[in-house]
């Protein structure tokens, strides 16, 4: 005797090689066939061979299958959107997780910049002890900057650059014939960014064209 083959097991084996869309079509087709068989079994005893109810029932069944497929596709699309949003939220949270710590630590870094700048080269040459101390500050500052940069934290020192309201805060305007209007002439406080997000704007003085009289137009530092 030959071994019998189970059609359901063949369907399950073949479904493993199908794409999600093809599997969806197969499931819907099986559901449609089951619904059609149930409808036929319910109506066959009293069915009239000349009746026109069967085409109408088929059309209703096809509409139900189409509605089911549309609902499943919409659900799958919504699930994919939820996964994409969750993935973006996780990536953003990881990328900017150190923002609060960075805002607190940049003041320490600025103090190191001030300490390094407070020891002139002349004084270093005159005192070996002071020179050794200044070198230690320079090494600490350089390592600190490297650590900050590895975590995506960058210092914004826009001296000589055009004013950018996205990263700069104008606190003064200074007349100048040597700089184009809107150029940063002075940096009172350096700014910082974390990747592409502003942590602290740079406080700057911006050049403006000399004006002979009062009421002349000012440089728009918000543009």
Key structural traits:
three-stranded antiparallel sheet; 15% strand; 56% helix; alpha+beta; Nucleotide Exchange Factor Grpe, Chain A, domain 2; 2 domains; disordered N terminus
Q: What order do the helices and strands come in, and which of them pair?
A:
Elements: H1 7-15, H2 20-43, H3 53-95, H4 99-117, H5 121-126, H6 128-150, E1 153-156, E2 168-175, E3 184-189, E4 191-194, E5 197-200, E6 202-208
Parallel strand pairs: 2-6
Antiparallel strand pairs: 1-4, 3-6, 4-5
Helix pairs in contact: 2-3, 4-6
The largest beta-sheet arranges its strands as: 1-4-5
Count of helical stretches: 6
Low-confidence stretches: 1-13
Q: Calculate the terminal CA-CA distance, rounded to whole Å.
A: 89 Å
The CATH class name of the largest domain reads Mainly Beta
Question: CATH topology of the largest domain, anyone?
Answer: Nucleotide Exchange Factor Grpe, Chain A, domain 2
Number of strands: 6
Structural class: alpha+beta
What count of domains describes the coordinates? 2
Biggest beta-sheet profile: 3 strands, antiparallel
Helix content: 55-70%
CATH architecture verdict of the largest domain: Roll
Helix-strand sequence: HHHHHHEEEEEE
Spatial shape:
elongated
Strand content: 5-15%
Gyration radius, rounded: 37 Å
CATH superfamily of the largest domain: Head domain of nucleotide exchange factor GrpE
Mean of pLDDT: 80
């Amino acid at each position: 005797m030959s071994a019998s083959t189970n059609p359901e097991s063949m369907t399950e084996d073949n479904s493993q090689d199908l794409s999600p869309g093809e599997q969806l079509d197969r499931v819907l087709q099986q559901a449609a066939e089951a619904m059609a068989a149930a409808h036929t079994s319910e109506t066959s005893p009293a069915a009239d061979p000349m009746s026109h109810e069967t085409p109408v029932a088929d059309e209703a069944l096809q509409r139900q299958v189409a509605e089911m497929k549309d609902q499943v596709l919409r659900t799958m699309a919504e699930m994919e959107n939820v996964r994409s949003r969750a993935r973006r939220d996780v990536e953003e949270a990881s990328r900017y997780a150190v923002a609060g710590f960075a805002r607190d630590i940049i003041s320490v870094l600025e103090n190191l910049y001030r300490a390094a700048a407070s020891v002139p080269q002349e004084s270093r040459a005159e005192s070996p002890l002071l020179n050794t101390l200044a070198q230690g500050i320079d090494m600490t500052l350089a390592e600190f900057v490297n650590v900050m940069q590895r975590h995506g934290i960058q210092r914004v020192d826009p001296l000589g650059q055009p004013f950018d309201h996205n990263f700069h805060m104008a606190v003064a305007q200074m007349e100048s014939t040597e700089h184009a209007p809107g150029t940063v002439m002075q940096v009172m406080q350096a700014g910082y960014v974390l990747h592409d997000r502003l942590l602290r704007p740079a406080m700057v003085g911006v050049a403006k064209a000399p004006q002979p009289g009062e009421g002349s137009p000012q440089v728009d530092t918000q543009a």
